[in-house]
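**Backbone geometry record:**
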Amino acid sequence: MKRDLAWLGAALAIVAVSRLLIPGAPALYEGIQLPTEPFHYCNPPANLATSNKQPGSGAGELPLSSGLSQLGSINTSDNQLLTFFPKGALQADGAAKYKLTLKPECQPPAPPAGNKVVGDAYNIDILGEPGDTPVRFLQPAQVLMRTPPVAYTSVQLYYDAGWHGTQWGQQQDIANITINHVGVVALLDDGRKNPAGKPPGQQATGIVTIVEVILVSAALGIVVAAIIVQKRRGREAGKTRRA
């Protein structure tokens, strides 16, 4: 029995580690409570202007050790934007703490030609304090951004006077975005239809899902193999005693 539990523990460990090591896996955040009330628009459609609530902002400090940021997450007050930073993601020379601010950008920079901003854009800013020292990304961070019921074709980050593509995936009304720079993050729509009916970033999520299925199958295989081995040993032990 103890050996069976050990095999089961090893299998579950494989699944858990796979969830942590694979970036952009939406199911990693399934336990987080996301808002259920109507989307909060910076600039609401005309038919929602009277009932709309303005999106919230957020601020907080990330733990710091030996000059590197530690595991932490900060979100806006309405949970329309959530950020996750792994251990060692950020570095700023001489900083005693890292301050992160999240603000809805109601007048974002002009999007690339042929694109329009969908929903709300957010300014993500991180500084080392004291001294307002810019931080360096040593590892990417994850952003969960609530999306309105409107189609979009890309998620981009504005910094250094230009828009830059991001790795992203979509799950229900959430965009899961990988960032390696501070700036303004926004959903964009270029007006083109995707033949598969899914945004381009969804492909990365599909690959993650395939890898996860393989790892979970391997874990289940370990459990089944362990049970078979234990049963065989039990039968052989029984035969030995009867002999």
Helices lie at 2-21, 202-242.
